[in-house]
């Protein structure tokens, strides 16, 4: 078996451990973002179970195809790369727990119980049924809750950020050609893993020889085992007498009271207990304050209270009872479609998204120039659609698509319905990524 499985430069990382480097993947227009092989698919499924929010995962699939992730380094407990986001370069890494020596020994012991898997590993293959030995040993090879984390200096509000999830998807591409990288991340290079399996097989063979020479197996007489004396029959007489008594029957249960009669009409006029609505409303407000503190720090002044219209939109967008939204449409004092559009915007980004919908503004020229540069860098000149810029509205000519730059620095996608613009998805700090998602050049896998 070759020491290097599936190519890639071999070396040592900064901590002196085995590390392998792989060249950057070129940009892909469309196609799958998940690896196709068995181990690549298992890695992706486990990663998506650990990070189940679809928004960051979809952004990561889109970003993985852009060709802006640099060479990838895989080493024990770490997958790292530099990511190019417009004019900035970010350092992104995934970290996983490295198995200790006892866990590896147990894994090889369980693998040695399986002749077919042992033969495949010694031949240089990583068999699919190795997962059964992993489960028997109760160790982790695939990522799980508590041992997979992401770190990136991009300061994106999502965790994990799109750069980290994109790196995780590109790792599945590497696993298509070299599944042994899964063991390397957990602390064992391919050659080292095979040698440890050979040692486990040798120890098992030696232990088998010793068992054949043990006394009793070859007819050698041994001392008979000593049998403890039986207890005196009278020792437990009192206990047996207590358990022999007949059980006393319990008294009959009293009858249940009649259920109280419910009033025909609720006292509040609302067909539900308002307490759960108040609790949900308080939880949403607390989440907004925590999001503000996460973005700006706990020492900053909290955002201004919502005005009547903003609070109406928030309730329509977040209230779980559809009847509430219908009552708000009737009593808000505006056309129902206005509230529907505003609620759709709120669901994509809260108060900031509502401001983008209702209040156009003119960004600084420098910010507009940076956006043009980012689009030109990420797209081929012949593929970039013609765009008309009016203030913070960037409209794709003849396509019914639009990007809107918010005062928070994020780009919000919009689609035209009849004569009005409607929010089309969550925002992103990268205009090129938002435009790619909006135009469908990087369709999600489920659409292929």
Topology overview:
Elements: E1 9-12, E2 18-22, H1 38-50, H2 54-64, E3 69-75, E4 78-85, E5 88-96, H3 101-112, H4 115-122, H5 130-137, E6 148-152, H6 162-177, H7 181-185, H8 190-212, H9 237-244, H10 274-296, H11 308-318, H12 322-331, H13 336-358, H14 365-378, E7 387-390, E8 393-396, E9 401-405, E10 411-417, E11 420-423, H15 431-439
Antiparallel strand pairs: 1-2, 2-3, 3-4, 4-5, 5-6, 7-8, 8-9, 9-10, 10-11
Key phrases:
43% helix, five-stranded antiparallel β-sheet, single chain, six-stranded antiparallel β-sheet, disordered N terminus, 11 strands, 448 residues, 15 helices, alpha+beta, disordered C terminus
How does this model look, in words?
- β1 and β2 (18-22) form a beta hairpin.
- This protein has helices at residues 38-50, 54-64, 101-112, 115-122, 130-137, 162-177, 181-185, 190-212, 237-244, 274-296, 308-318, 322-331, 336-358, 365-378, 431-439, and strands at residues 9-12, 18-22, 69-75, 78-85, 88-96, 148-152, 387-390, 393-396, 401-405, 411-417, 420-423.
- The strands form two sheets. Strands 1-2-3-4-5-6 form a six-stranded antiparallel sheet. The chain has a five-stranded antiparallel sheet with strand order 7-8-9-10-11.
- It contains 15 helices and eleven strands.
- The longest helix is centred in the middle third of the chain and has 23 residues, at 190-212.
